[in-house]
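no rush on this but wanted to send it before i forget. theres a chain ive been looking at and ive put its sequence and its fold in token form underneath. i want to understand how the tokens follow from the sequence so walk me through it. thanks a lot i owe you, the record is right below:
>
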Amino acid sequence: MLASLCYKALQLSGVTALARRFSSGGVVLCYHNVVADAAAGPPDNLGLHIPLPRFERQMRWLANNYEVVSLTDLVVRVSQGRSLRGVAAVTFDDGYGGVFDHAWPLLQELNIPATVFVVAEAPGRDERFWWDDPEVLRTYSPARREHWLTALRGDSATIVASLTRARRPSPGKAPSARMPAPWETIAAAAASGLALGVHSATHRSLPALDERDLHREVVESRDVIRRHTGVMAEFFAYPYGLWNDGVRQAVRSAGYRAAFTLEGGDSMADTWALPRLNVPAGIDEAAFEAWMAGLNLRRRLAS
């Protein structure tokens, strides 16, 4: 509540607009999913499923206040050392059905380019992403997340199996918007202009993997996406935003033009560790505008 009031005060005082005007860096937004009905499905404790009306307000504001470019355009500017002042790009991680059903039609209407980073082995499977599992959401804590991503390597089957003993009765299948989109939907969107990137094969924590598994996540995943869509993806997004020097080198050696992390800093100096602003589903307009201007009180307080 206090942070919300602070963001509102910054907005009303004109500080947010002033900070945005003088900010020299570009902003790459990272969303996960867009849903028509936020109440359809388990509570969104992790802030991944943004309601369509809120997403639309953000996109209309973005179109009116930024030059929204494709990732290709942004990476070219970074590589050439050109100014990114007032520049933004829109990305989505994972490949949820809601992105194709709700976000992409709106973005087409607003003429906003976007890239979806697809988890290559998720489409076609009749199961939700592990972090949407009701038992995961019920037992989630920062300490558990750390354990899941290190000791269990972010592996879906292992994490879900570890919770089997405590599992409550299943609430049933998730709505299609909260499931991975099928390949035919992804391919159709790509044909209509939506750019595709690679978000690994299985969304495991890459720094925890050996060389063989890393090859599957970085290289074979791109081949899977190409076979199903005809798109040879040029950009990679690290699952959970996690990477190290070995992972970075594997992605670079695989021939990707650039790779993206999550809130890893404000510098666009490293083309294979470009930061993105992770947008939580519950963020209000004043906070969103402040974060776009670099006024992220949560980050400041944590530093």
